[in-house]
Automatic annotation (TrEMBL):
Its EC number is 2.7.1.144. Belongs to the carbohydrate kinase PfkB family. LacC subfamily. Belongs to the carbohydrate kinase pfkB family. Pathway: Carbohydrate metabolism; D-tagatose 6-phosphate degradation; D-glyceraldehyde 3-phosphate and glycerone phosphate from D-tagatose 6-phosphate: step 1/2. Residues 7-280 form the Carbohydrate kinase PfkB domain. Catalyzes the ATP-dependent phosphorylation of fructose-l-phosphate to fructose-l,6-bisphosphate. It comes from the Bacteria. This is Tagatose-6-phosphate kinase. InterPro entries: 1-PFruKinase (IPR022463), Carboh/pur_kinase_PfkB_CS (IPR002173), PfkB_dom (IPR011611), Ribokinase-like (IPR029056), Tagatose/fructose_Pkinase (IPR017583). It is an enzyme of class 2 (transferase). It catalyses: beta-D-fructose 1-phosphate + ATP = beta-D-fructose 1,6-bisphosphate + ADP + H(+); D-tagatofuranose 6-phosphate + ATP = D-tagatofuranose 1,6-bisphosphate + ADP + H(+).
Length: 303
């Protein structure tokens, strides 16, 4: 079974305006409310790929109910801990370019945090736990480590998609996959990355630090796949970009979902890139049909 963990879900409020005039009344051209948070996005794309999974994390208030109902309607199994504060609303402002304003998230109390750890009490060897996104400040930077501890205790694999200290601490614990984008990779090592060679060097460092597989995503430029004996590059197919929010989460879903079904890293890489691009070319997240259409357009070369 694959579990996704979203400690800080959101309603993504996508707002389109022609131009933002600060200090004036602006009227929206179009708006859209979607369930969000990185793990929830992974679950929704896994579901498109017919990969059974369960979404867990914290949800609260009217915003939490909106997300839970949406997942239920899509037939995605979920088992969130109910918290007393409202789940956040993240603003994705489209005015030519995309600007994001993400909330901090609700306060999570100690008993609510314990309840989430309990949700993983029945993990088994062979399960994969995908942990994605920011940690609400009240939980503390170490909370992913506690979840990873539970995974290891039960022999389950884990994938972690976060940044900074939380990612650094997780690497020596052996994640199945990490997927920084090129900016996050540079930030993680406190360096400037100016060439493909730099991306490979720092991507390989993630392996040395403990990751089993590394994807370095490069938006419209595609991605690199690095693991112990492999180094591959994939292009991203051409298309009209509608929304890049969740492209990285879709890539993780495509990769991990396909790896769990086939055990083949190259098929997984292709599905990951196709899923990321299919989301970039859609208003909402990728659907199965577009992912399948894009797969043959992806060229993978060995470096
Ligand atoms: N403009 C684009 N054109 C085609 N494919 C894209 C584009 N942007 C993203 N993708 C696809 O999605 C993958 C992941 O994108 P990206 O590198 O932007 O991840 P990310 O920064 O984690 O995304 P986000 O934080 O927006 O979810 C890319 O490797 C590519 O396959
Ligand atoms: O604030 P975080 O947890 O880092 O990121 C949250 C978020 O920006 O990530 C998803 C896209 O990847 C969105 O659905 C959501 O709004």
């Amino acid at each position: 079974m694959i579990y996704t963990v979203t400690l800080n879900p959101s309603i993504d409020y996508i707002v389109e305006v022609d131009q933002v005039k600060l200090g004036s009344l602006n009227r929206m051209k179009r708006d859209l409310k979607l369930p969000g948070g990185k793990g929830i996005n992974v679950s929704r794309v896994l579901n498109q790929l017919n990969v059974q999974n369960k979404a867990i994390g914290f949800l609260g208030g009217f915003t939490g109910r909106y997300i839970e109902d949406w997942l239920h309607e899509e037939g995605i199994a979920s088992d969130f801990v109910s918290v007393s504060d409202d789940t956040r609303i993240n603003i994705k402002l489209k005015a030519g370019e995309e600007t994001e304003i993400n909330g901090m998230g609700p306060v999570i109390r100690a008993n609510e945090a314990e309840a989430l750890l309990q949700k993983l009490a029945n993990l088994q060897a062979g399960d994969i736990v995908i942990m994605s996104g920011s940690i609400p400040p009240s939980l503390g930077e170490n909370f992913y480590n506690r979840l990873i501890g539970v995974c290891k205790q039960h022999g389950a694999e884990f994938v972690i998609d976060t940044t900074g200290q939380a990612l650094q601490q997780a690497l020596p614990l052996g994640p199945l996959l990490v997927k920084p984008n090129h900016h996050e990779l540079a930030e993680l090592f406190g360096v400037q990355i100016s060439s493909k060679e730099d991306l490979i060097t720092y991507g390989r460092k993630l392996l040395e630090l403990g990751a089993k597989h590394v994807l370095v995503s490069m938006a419209g430029e595609g991605a690199l796949f690095i693991s112990e004996n492999s180094l591959f590059r994939a292009n991203a197919p051409a298309g009209k970009v509608k929304n890049s929010v969740g492209a990285g989460d879709s890539m993780i879903a495509g990769f991990v979902g396909t790896l769990s079904l086939t055990g083949d890293v190259l098929q997984a890489f292709r599905a990951g890139v196709a899923s990321g691009s299919a989301t970039a070319f859609s208003d909402d997240l990728a659907d199965r049909e577009l992912i399948e259409q894009l797969k043959p357009l992806i060229e993978i070369s060995q470096l």
